Amino acid sequence: TTDSTETLQTARGCPFAPAEQHLRFLREQPVTKVMLATGREAWAATRYEDIRTILSDPRFSADRRHPNAPRLSKADGQMADSPLPKMLLEMDPPEHTQARRQVIGEFTVRRMAALRPRIQQIVDEHLDAMLDGPRPADLVKALALPVPSLVICELLGVPYSDHDFFQVHSAQLLNRAATEQERQHAVLELVIYLDKLITAKEQEPTDDLLGRQIVKQRESGEADHTALLSLAFLLLIAGHETTANMISLGTYMLLQHPESMEALRADPDKIGNAVEEMLRYFTIAELAMARVAREDVELSGTVIPAGSGVVMLANAGDRDPEAFEDPDRFDIDRDARSHLAFGYGPHQCLGQNLARVELEIVFNTLLRRVPGLRLAVPAEELSFKDDSTVYGMHELPVTW
Ligand code: HEM
User: Looking at the record, which segments are called Disordered (predicted)?
Assistant: First the structure.
């Protein structure tokens, strides 16, 4: 009954650990019914293997507009009411398979490697500005937010003259001090902007993700303007805050682990491995992973009834001792590549190779160029995003 169902805790408490409740579920009730803050019931899964099953098993649907789809916050509801056509993230096969096949070629390791010089330039420019400015500086504002935003501009082919507009509005989307109305205004401005951008590219296709999609659509005779708008908007919201939060959390983690910083300075090639461990350690997007069971499914001895919403507490899953030895230890030398931070299965993060390149460049550049980097306030004063579906930091005051 409702009374005996625990409310799902969404705040982590300690930034370096999953919520206490989620770890208890992992130990005691790996698949359990919970009440969400929005008043909906859902099932929570915490074991690494169960989460991989849910994310890859066609008996679970990714349809966020399903009446039982887990809604953790009011904002999730707005996505379900979005006037845009279904986004990749919400589609099921075969629709999803088809739509993803259209864009997957834009995110290959090779394409991402080609973006490296430009990403390095963006990082260097922002670091120059930070180092020339007053101390202390907020690393979130100086680096973590603008870098991914400009990289998305690069990817989508937003002209240089529109970068400021694009950045201001996408920062507003994530601004906790903004009112709901201001945020909705920012969404509208961005949608209108992307709509115009796509129209311009339809007239004269450019050599960038959107331009190439337009050419591809024409070749197959399936021109679809609103589908492109949905894709552009998804890339913007999926690639901005996530990467920004990993930049600030990863920097903070390094500052807390001088021995790891030294090891990385001595051998910058280790950064790829360290980034995987950071991704595992924080698993920031866990509350964003939700599904609906299409049939009764038994997992770890518990039956999830058909039609139920399911949340995957992947941060606990990435601390499952059956998957990672001594899981609470931060160890940049471990092999963490099989973590759940990018999800798993058909919806596994489309932008993961891009995120990796961005994170590697940011951390290596910080280590190389700002050897004296340190926190400008005591660690207890830092403020973490316990109020958001994607975990991160509100500010990271640093000096050097
Ligand atoms: C999907 C995390 C960066 C684009 C996902 C999913 C996760 C995730 C967990 C799966 C959601 C699910 O199964 O329900 C992250 C993290 C990032 C990051 C932690 C940064 C560290 C990016 C970037 C982009 C991007 C930079 C693109 C510019 C996408 C897209 C999807 C997705 C388009 C949906 C794929 C699909 O449904 O087929 N991401 N992401 N992400 N991500 Fe990322």
Answer: 60-80
